[in-house]
Predict the structure.
Amino acid sequence: MSYYTGRTMSSHGATWNRVPLNIGEVTLGEYLANTGRSLALAGKTHVIVDDRGIERMNLIARNSELAARFATGHFVELDRYDGHHEPGKESGYPAYLRAHGYDSARPWSDFVISVEDDRLQPHSGWKMRNVHWPARVAEQHSETAYMTDQAIRHIEHEGDTPWALHLSYVKPHWPYVAPRPYHNLYSLDQCLPLQRRHTELADAHPVLRAYREQEECANFAREEVSNKIRPVYQGLIQQIDDHLGRLFDTLEKLGRFDDTLIVFCADHGDFLGDHWLGEKELFYDTVQRVPMIVYDPSPRADGTRGTCEQRFMSNIDIVPTVLDALSLPGCNERIEGRSLLPLTRGEPVTDWREFVVSELDYSFRQARLTLGRQPGECRGWMVRNARWKYVHWLGYRPQLFDLASDPHEYADLGADREYEPIRQVMHRHLGEWMAESKTRVTLSDERVRETTNNHKSKGVFFGEW
Amino acid sequence: MSYYTGRTMSSHGATWNRVPLNIGEVTLGEYLANTGRSLALAGKTHVIVDDRGIERMNLIARNSELAARFATGHFVELDRYDGHHEPGKESGYPAYLRAHGYDSARPWSDFVISVEDDRLQPHSGWKMRNVHWPARVAEQHSETAYMTDQAIRHIEHEGDTPWALHLSYVKPHWPYVAPRPYHNLYSLDQCLPLQRRHTELADAHPVLRAYREQEECANFAREEVSNKIRPVYQGLIQQIDDHLGRLFDTLEKLGRFDDTLIVFCADHGDFLGDHWLGEKELFYDTVQRVPMIVYDPSPRADGTRGTCEQRFMSNIDIVPTVLDALSLPGCNERIEGRSLLPLTRGEPVTDWREFVVSELDYSFRQARLTLGRQPGECRGWMVRNARWKYVHWLGYRPQLFDLASDPHEYADLGADREYEPIRQVMHRHLGEWMAESKTRVTLSDERVRETTNNHKSKGVFFGEW
């Protein structure tokens, strides 16, 4: 929702998957609606309906078209597909699979996330022990191939009329199943080494201890598990890379590189055993430093092409970047991120952020029960600047890592007296960040300027002698 | 809006008069709608329409009844009256005045806030120099009398059927005009003494300096002004006290004291020259410590009747108090205040707040221009505990007052090195308060508990070996 609103989690309030975005929030699709371009979604999105908000607005009974648009984030669903369950009617993928010979009522479960062993016996890809075997779906019919096909067909169909496409791949992600040849394209020694030390387990932070008791972490703490998954994950990365190549060939063929802003990003990494963890939460770089590649078609960006920006980006920057690229109003009273185009265009920017913040609410996780906490008491904030990473937790001691001397974040200095001054500085940054959240979202800054000190023009004359 | 939502200004976002409340916020009227009681408003309210939110919801065209309810905070306007302008059609007061002999197209301007001197010459009550003269309206037809009449008539009419009434008096307030006999019922020596010292003007905080340049402050800095206004203001207090007596007589006569929760409060004080200031902003006790009287009809509250609670109340406590009194759902995922009923009922409460926070956004004031700041850069937060009052300002040094040694807040210790440890503690409280704001408003805590760690029940099996 931060990618969709340009606002922080604290501001938009969707603190977890399946937490509806308040109907008072505005998303990318709504910003782009009525700007003369088609809006399409292909793939995964976490937009869900704010049922109570919709009900408050009487929208179900009285305005079902608008209610439906809220349910899709104002995009048109070419093919909505989340890859966590057997797909339903929202996706054409099951019918596509059956049309290509995957004869099953549940082709996703039986072929896409199933594998077959040497003797052609099927096994579920939900079980990580099985994922060194290839998927039972052919690569050309796999999720990544299928969704790329949808995107290419749509882009070709739109031709030279303006469009915006949210193409959202599931993989790489669990179930960690790859089709041939990607299932064993890589060997373990070609993967990033495990980043963990036994010293991390001594005096571990209470929240980390609780996380490590969760099933996915307990399993990934075993080398047998991480050794099996990491090469497959690497294969899935290779697969999306190959299909993006197909997509970009299409864009090039159609001349779209001349007029299309492309933002490639990911919403989380995956520990795969780093720091004795699985899944994607907490604040280590493994899961926080996600891809962020911006292609700015403007010739003004030619000077920075192929370069790597070292300043801090955040997912809240994407909405303002898109609005800026289309010369749409910036909605500064609401949007908290900043356009990246001054950076892609090498313009002098002297006041870029010196630190970046990330947030977690673990209320929905087993860790909350382990720690005996209530919903709303389970929040954490990371503040990271060029050198330090600080984590503030409700109810627990902070964490601190010195990324200069400890780039892999093995030594938590959060309880070390010597570093109290550093923690205070970082904590103050967090306060600054909280204090700068955008709350007056119903009125533009321009309107504030116009009406500043204007009470006399409204016939109100207080304070006159 | 904090009185109406049970949420802080940072959370609900209505940072000033005329800033619409986001349509995603829920107000007292909406909480009480459909609970089997009539809802009525008599008097002043700052509810205005979130035009952009309404437009986003297509409510103007498609659902005008609901749009209208948002415009009144879901209350039925018996008589909406703000007392800052000549009233329009929203109030019956102009017609009432004309029916009682106040013959004018603008009876409010010509009679209610006009005064007459010894020679029966009229003068505008907007000019503070005139307000020692009596209003040209008779006391029985004055704003406070009229609105009390509306309330009494409504309460009598409702009889024993359940109702909720928001009775909102304008006075005491500018224009500081009182009808006979209240215009000179008090002499200056019966008023609270001016709380100001010349030492406050040396090295004053930049935001205070900017405020003191505003017209109302510059005028109230002159004793001639405060000496003239304070006795009239005291008279206006006496007047509302007298009319509340009439109201309570009615309640008593009808037996309503047996079944009616009464909350008497005010939304701001008035400096009237204290601290060389006029109007109602900033964080001095003069304007922050407002009346808060709760009458709880339950016999369980008999033990605390007539007592004065020393713990910190906040305006965000009123909505939860009302919901609690009516045994309605507490909406803990959204409401940030706490019910006061455990206190009125003398129940053991061990975790009551140790400090209270107040917020200011001065973007709409002349002070912003004086200081050369942009909208959104003009925020301040007060943190007050039993001993200290700390103010954090965006862009400026903090303020600090030691209320034990300096109860009238003359000595700002915000730049005094000796008090840095105190300021750090208070600043940390502010961070705690910010971190506990309610953001996940679309989903109840109960729902979080029900769905915690339930992914397997949804067919999602990540992390299994």
